[in-house]
Amino acid sequence: MKKEHLDNLYENIFKNEKSVLSLTIPIALMYKYIFTQNTQTLQTNYDLTHSELDVLASLSFNDAIMSPTDLYEATIFSSGGMTKILKKLEHKKLISRIHSKEDKRSMLVKLEPKGEEVLKDCFANILQRDKQIFSVLDEKEKKSLEQILKKLVYSLSDK
After folding, report:
1. Residue 116 maps to a domain
2. Tell me: the pLDDT tens digits for 125-135?
3. In total, how many domains does the chain have?
4. By C-alpha distance, which of 25, 22, 57 is closest to 38?
């Protein structure tokens, strides 16, 4: 969105409005920009989707081995969608399926070293751009924003 349109938004919509729109619209605009940039980076540099990255990150943040059910609970898509994503990641050799030690009938999902390497490189790439986005904030503003966003995200997990 052009600066002149943003100016109009803030001047004409929000000036008489003590509404939550003055919070949600900027968040939506930030999300749209970041999501679009990340989509391009993921597709161009890593041949990944956001959902595939979400699975790799969930595995990495949770000891690299999870059941499909746990992965489903740690991400945002349906169990049917999970199966499709796991097949794609397995085909790319970023994950593997292994038998559970507790129940030989069930399969666990394991993050492979190649998957961990791709994830680290991808996050480094995205982090570099994200640092540029937030460089307009000083450290105190960043910390405040982090605390506010954390509070809001945790409130959503209760719903």
Report:
1. yes
2. 999 989 999 99
3. 1
4. 57
